[in-house]
Amino acid sequence: MPSVFPSFASTRRGSLPARRAARVSTTSATVPSASASGACSTPSSTRPRSLGRLIARADCVRLLENRLRIVHTLRRHPEIERQDIRQPIFIVGLPRTGTTILPELLAQDPANRVPMTWEVMHPWPPPERATYRTDPRIAQVEKHFAGVDRLVPGFKAMHPMGAELPQECVALTAHDFASMLFSTTHDVPSYDAWLKPGHATGQEP
Fold it and tell me: Taking the mean position of all CA atoms in its chain, how far away is CA 142?
């Protein structure tokens, strides 16, 4: 069966998408409780408006569904994690330093394979080579971004978004509910405090 996309920004073509992006822990220690993180519930001090509540719920449900399907697939097909990932390329940098445009530039080389936004948002079932450019999830994600454009006009000028643009690690780690992505979309101070370095993993000094 096809493997799942990698969590790093780009890989040399040796095996079509592979393991680590889809590797999620099933232990309760990895995923904060709703009350601890605030990701799927909000304290009264930061209660969102109705639209924000609907968006937050939709995001949580999508991520949880993805996570369950990924865990189920890995249990049924442990060989996915035994695949070779040859010559991975890691892109590391602070926000607003070009870490978004660099994967797009690397993707221009046909020898590189990057995880596209539509794959990250809807990773299951794994994409097929034959329908990779026509997968219906592409249109689904473009429709989603059209809604974002209506809610936040002009945001694309600061941060281009598209179903067929490379996606970054924050959208992948969101499946563990440990991602700065939530801090950019929801004002939940208790979650930001939980996410700070070391705290989410229990290694805070």
Answer: 16
pLDDT digits (tens, 9 = 90+) for 128-168: 999 999 999 999 999 999 988 898 888 888 888 999 999 98
Tokens of 107: 């993707």
Residue whose structure tokens are 């109705």: 50
Instruction: Please state, in angstroms and as integers, the Cα–Cα distance from residue 103 to each residue in 11, 21, 116, 157, 174, following that order.
Output: 10, 16, 10, 18, 19
Q: How many other CB atoms are found less than 10 A from the CB of residue 73?
A: 19
The topology under which CATH files domain 10-189 is Rossmann fold (3.40.50)
- For residues 185 and 92, what is the distance between their CA atoms, to the nearest angstrom? 22
Distance CA 203, CA 200 (A): 8
* pLDDT score of 64: 96
Provide the whole-model pTM.
0.70
One-letter amino acid of 41? S
Q: What is the 3-state secondary structure (H, E, C) of 109-160?
A: CCCEECCEHHHHHCCCCCCCHHHCCCCHHHHHHHHHHHHHHHHCCCHHHHCC
Q: What is the DSSP letter of 201?
A: T
Task: For residues 107 and 112, give the distance between their C-alpha atoms in angstroms, rounded to a whole number.
Answer: 6
